[in-house]
Structure formats: structure tokens, C-alpha cells
Amino acid sequence: MSQEQTTTPAMPRLNEPAPAFNAKTTHGVKTNEDYKGKWLVLFSHPADFTPVCTTEFMAFAKAADKFAELNTNLLGLSIDSVYSHLAWEQNIKQNFGVEIPFPIIADLDMKVAHSYGMIQPGASDTSAVRATFIIDPEGILRAMVYYPMTNGRSIDEFLRLITALQTSDEHGVATPENWHKGEKVIVPPPATSQEAEERANKGYEYTDWYFSKKSL
Hints:
Blueprint: E1 22-25, E2 28-31, E3 39-44, H1 51-62, H2 64-69, E4 72-78, H3 82-96, E5 104-106, H4 111-115, E6 130-135, E7 141-147, H5 155-171, E8 185-186, H6 193-198, E9 205-208, E10 211-214
Parallel strand pairs: 3-4, 4-5
Antiparallel strand pairs: 1-2, 3-6, 6-7, 8-10, 9-10
């Protein structure tokens, strides 16, 4: 590699510690340590004062209490200044009657955006794409979702996913497609031949040795 070339930061990986950050926000400086013991949804948007981002921020704000019920904090980010963030918050409040209760990182040097892989050269070299990261109370990255610049996210999906992750952690189970709280969960597949033979008699909703469900 020549001296002119730069090393591309490694992309974050699931089930490993989330990249550390120490960032200026609309609520003061925030670090990973501020969120230990809680789940965190860290999400980026391309820019302040843009229409799709405005709809997303209002949706996150309206769902903030639901996230709080799941012991989950919200933390936004864009490559704008704190002053731009504050002005945008005021604009949203004045025009739409929605207050933004969570902090927003001012990532002007793009350090956080690069460490989390929020900068996608195919989309933009100067704006963060719509990336969302779910980090557990131990600081481990559990899920990440990337959206294009043109299309907004479903905030309900993140509430559903956090509920599913917490259910899997607590009960040692998996959850099927579009699972919601109260629905049956998937029993982990058996690990031995004997367990596979016995699976049909365990009292589960049995379809085959590898596919069984149960109620919690």
C-alpha cells in the first residue's frame, strides 16, 4: 500500500463490542459508557432540515416512551453542527408540534460515522446513510440495518426487533418472521441425535425434529 492510500475503517460486526465514541451532542458530550446497563438505538440520518429525516425523527420522538419501556435509549447522528441540530429541533417543534427528547450527535469530523460504517461511498462521501445500530446493555452490537438515502425507516420494526432480542436473551429461544410479543417462539434445534429422537415427545407444537414452537 502506498503512503497516499488510507486504510478504510473496519465495519462493525454483530456480537462484538460496538465501536467506542466520545461525541458532542445536543445533550452534552456522550460516550458508550453513558448507556451501559441499557439498550441503545444509535441511528444516523443524511442531514438536518431534510423531509425524509424529519419524518423519521418525529416517529422516533413519538415512540420514545415505548423504547423507554424496553429499557432503551435513542441517540441520533448526522454530519451537522450542534447549532444546526438545535435549530432543526426548534423547527420541528414549531412546524409539527413534536419535541425531540433524545440527543443528536454532531459528527462534523465524521469519526463516529466512519467507525460505524455510516459513510457509504456509493451513496455519499459527505453524508451518513440511514444506518441503525442496536446495542445491548453490555455494549455489544446486536443488530444493524442500513437504508438508502431516499427511503425512511420503520420505527415500529426496531421496537419489534428489540422486544424479540430481549425475549431470545431471557428465554433462550428464537423468534419467527414478524414475531410479536405474545406469539409462539421457536425452540432451538436439537444438538444431538438423541435429542432429535425425543423432540416429538417434549410437548412442543411439533412439526419436525428441527422445527418446533412453544408458548412462553
